[in-house]
Design a protein that fits this description.
Elements: E1 2-13, E2 28-39, E3 42-49, E4 52-53, E5 60-66, E6 69-71, E7 74-76, E8 79-89, E9 94-108, E10 119-131, E11 134-145, E12 159-163, E13 169-179, E14 188-197, E15 203-214
Antiparallel strand pairs: 1-11, 2-3, 2-4, 2-15, 5-8, 6-7, 7-9, 8-9, 9-10, 10-11, 12-13, 13-14, 14-15
């Protein structure tokens, strides 16, 4: 199965209803992903890729980038991020921010040895936008293959079971996990995709693809 494009968005107004979190979110941050998983006596780790952080006090763009990485069973192509602050009304000191993470050529082959699928994502992006009224987050996935049974329209927080050919669940993939602080200050964080291995896979740990967070501007 190959999906050419899946996209979605969520908007949060300041003081909207929210789900629990431990603390408010930063002014703006983005990362293209990370990984920390293990098999037997082998550990495979990818530190957060292409990280950027908004500078809320200075107009301009902060960029991040990471070269392609490869671990046994996992490949991720070049990744990038931008965190931008824009002054929209200097007389009233009003600003807006945009934090974006992008990536390409994701391939997880670690499950093939257990008769699982080879999972691919050709391109992805995730963004978090903020102004004085609130925040919103959006995402895009392109060129997906190996994701048998994934719905055409992925709802927020959707959990997809990644199975072997005999139906054994090898891992679970959670899409667009969105978290708000309590009490709600209008901020938001979103993880585009997190793959968590089940014991039946022979692996422990997880892999994250794309994460952002942002808060309303002053």
């Amino acid at each position: 199965m190959r999906k050419t494009l899946v996209a979605g968005a969520v908007a949060v107004l300041t003081l909207a209803a929210a789900s629990p979190a431990l603390a408010s979110n930063p002014p703006g941050t983005a990362s293209s992903g990370s990984a920390d998983f293990a098999k037997a006596d082998q550990t495979f780790k990818v530190d957060p890729l292409a990280v950027c952080n908004v500078n809320p006090d200075t107009a301009g763009t902060v960029s991040g980038s990471s070269p392609a990485v490869a671990r046994s069973g996992l490949k991720i192509g070049e990744t990038g991020s931008t965190c931008t602050t824009e002054v929209v009304n200097p007389n009233e000191f009003l600003t807006k921010t945009k934090s974006i993470a992008t990536g390409k050529a994701f391939e997880l082959s670690a499950l093939v040895g257990k008769n699982g699928p080879r999972l691919k994502i050709a391109e992805w992006s995730i963004n978090c936008d903020a102004d004085e009224k609130g925040t919103s987050a959006g995402w895009v996935l392109k060129g997906m293959s190996g994701w048998t049974g994934l719905p055409q329209n992925i709802p927020s927080g959707y959990v997809h079971e990644i199975k072997a050919s005999d139906g054994t669940v090898l891992a679970r993939a959670k899409f667009t996990d969105t978290v708000f602080p309590v009490p709600n200050d209008g901020s938001i964080s979103m993880t585009l995709l997190k793959i968590s291995f089940e014991p039946s896979s022979g692996y422990t740990g997880s892999i994250t693809v794309g994460s952002v967070a942002c808060s309303p501007t002053p």
